[in-house]
Design a protein that fits this description.
The chain is α+β, with helices and mostly antiparallel strands and 123 residues long. It is built from four helices and seven strands, in the order βαβαβαβββαβ. The radius of gyration is 14 Å and the shape is globular.
């Protein structure tokens, strides 16, 4: 009997427009990057994703969401972990042209685990 695939949990802070595109892809893939987005960057910890969604996406997009998803660990080895600030601010940088291959290694569905809206609005 084959052993189960080892996966790594990743998070992605996102705004409402990108989230709608993920929904249209049936929660199984990330949409292609726009020309001004040469890199897709999932993050390695939930706290960092929360900070981006709450503090940046809400301000710039009107709402912020944190998604969680699993990716085949062996595949992820090709992407070095990038420290984008403090010691817990860790990202993977996936070149836009490799996003289809990345999406093919997502195991299961992308799920929304946190939603943020401006103060005074229901989440």
């Amino acid at each position: 009997m084959p052993s189960p695939r080892t996966t790594t949990t990743l998070w992605r802070p996102t705004g409402p427009a990108e989230l709608e595109l993920v929904r249209a892809l049936e929660w199984r893939a990330w949409p292609p990057r726009l020309p001004e987005q040469p890199i897709f960057y999932p993050v390695l910890n939930e706290d960092y994703a929360i900070r981006i969604a709450r503090d940046w996406n809400v301000k710039h997009d009107g709402a912020g969401f944190v998604t969680r998803f699993e990716v085949d660990t062996a595949f992820l080895a090709r992407y070095p972990v990038r420290q984008a600030g403090g010691e817990t601010i860790l990202e993977l940088w996936v070149p836009a042209e490799e996003l289809d291959a990345f999406n093919a290694r997502i195991v299961g569905r992308i799920e929304v685990v946190h939603a943020f809206r401006p103060a005074g609005e229901d989440a």
